[in-house]
């Protein structure tokens, strides 16, 4: 039987379940539990599931949290949600930075000056929107 090559999907390399289990050092029952819990979300088709490099990193993180750091199952989804929020915010910040960099020099300088003036006015730990004030 020919070995299936990893293929890119949305810029990520993918692997089948067996390869993923070996790379993540998991057994099938644990993987099924994590997928059912929504901690991992492989791409599925009629025949199989494909896991990305991001899924592998997430599985290793979950394993480390549970085994090396003693984090209980109830805390895992909270930690994963917070990590997902941080990644989303970082992506949004990159998009804003890209948009700012695309502006003419004078506009970029005005935007940077406004950001600096706002950051000086808002004390650390203050609510981040008018609705929360």
Major sheet: arrangement of strands: 1-2-4-3
Mean pLDDT: 86
Distance between the ends:
63 Å
The topology string of helices and strands comes to EEHHEEHHH
At CATH level 3, the topology of the largest domain is Multidrug-efflux Transporter Regulator, Chain: A, Domain 2
CATH class group of the largest domain:
Mainly Alpha
Number of separate domains? 2
Account of the protein in words:
The structure is a single chain. The chain is α+β, with helices and mostly antiparallel strands and 133 residues long. Helices cover 57% and strands 10% of the residues. The chain contains 5 helices and 4 strands. The chain has helices spanning 17-24, 28-36, 53-68, 76-101, 105-121, and strands at residues 8-9, 12-16, 43-44, 49-52. The protein has a 4-stranded antiparallel sheet with strand order 1-2-4-3. The chain is elongated and about 55 Å long.
Summary?
This protein has 133 residues and is an alpha+beta fold. The chain contains 5 helices and 4 strands.
Overview features:
133 residues, alpha+beta, Multidrug-efflux Transporter Regulator, Chain: A, Domain 2, 2 domains, four-stranded antiparallel beta sheet, 5 helices, disordered N terminus
Topology overview:
Layout: E1 8-9, E2 12-16, H1 17-24, H2 28-36, E3 43-44, E4 49-52, H3 53-68, H4 76-101, H5 105-121
Antiparallel strand pairs: 1-2, 2-4, 3-4
